[in-house]
User: Fold this.
Amino acid sequence: MTTETFILDPTLAKDTVEITKLDICLVLLIRDRTYPWLILVPAVHGLRDLDDLNPEQLQTVMAEVDHISKVMKAQFQPYKMNVAALGNVVEQLHIHVIARFQGDPAWPAPVWGAHPPQDYSDADRDHLVDQIRTALCR
Amino acid sequence: MTTETFILDPTLAKDTVEITKLDICLVLLIRDRTYPWLILVPAVHGLRDLDDLNPEQLQTVMAEVDHISKVMKAQFQPYKMNVAALGNVVEQLHIHVIARFQGDPAWPAPVWGAHPPQDYSDADRDHLVDQIRTALCR
Assistant:
């Protein structure tokens, strides 16, 4: 399974901008300025569920989720973090890491399907990607 | 923080039945026969987000999530597993592990808020709790 080349799902590619690549995960920003919303995609061919990762991969992926979550807390001062691997629509394993605020448009419901995504302006997106990339590598 | 006694959130207590306790997590069955839906609650006082766990706790919790997920796959043959730590309503850290089917009432949307929960009959719930408990300890 892992001998085949990893290719990012085309829907994820369309809906996101790449921030960086960690040891195992691509870190992507969702094109939706409604919430600070990142997605981690383990760059391993053929994964669907979190339990498809072997124990070593799972440990690395979760350490990366933990790192991203802490960076987002420091950057955005959210009220709560939401972490989820759902994948009912896009089946390639991807992990949502979302900073939530008591005043955000979906609060307290989950974000999926709550509001149509609103893309950032190019300048805002570039700025945010730089900001998160810098914070991740600090 | 960890010197205080862990007490299960009263809403989680009301909405679930305890299946077992693993090394760190309580394993609870949600009282909703719409989906096979378990919740893992790390029995440590004061946790809100997944990144509040220290690295050792995170590794143990995720190994338990992995175990539960594999057992649910074997028991229920779902199309997809959903794993999520949200906690916007109940803030005590808890991790949903849900077996999803292409024909289930919320598919492909997330389960939260999709349908009012429908409790099992006492007999069905007891049977299911026994079934999962046995499979977990095998």
Observations:
- Chain B is about 30% helix and 20% strand.
